């Protein structure tokens, strides 16, 4: 039987072999930046592109967290900085979470 990817072949091995044998056969691709392991080269490339890319246009003004898209930054802000009202209007004294709201 032919398999389109090496990953699919290894998943098929599980049906015929014990897990310990399969683990020895599986080739992992390890991220050079964070040591996370992937079972396919394309998964590692996708991880590197989105998480370890210098072109991360969305940056958290509170802690420096970076994101490739706006949505992960919004989720980060809602989870990690929910109580951060750090932008104070010097004219009226109101506080804002987002600098653009001043």
From TrEMBL:
GO molecular function terms noted in the UniProt entry: zinc ion binding
Keywords (A to Z) from UniProt: Metal-binding, Repeat, Zinc, Zinc-finger
Segments forming domain C2H2-type: 29-57
Metal-binding listed as a keyword: yes
InterPro entries cross-referenced by the UniProt entry: Znf_C2H2_sf (IPR036236), Znf_C2H2_type (IPR013087)
Protein name per the record: C2H2-type domain-containing protein
Organism annotation: Cuerna arida
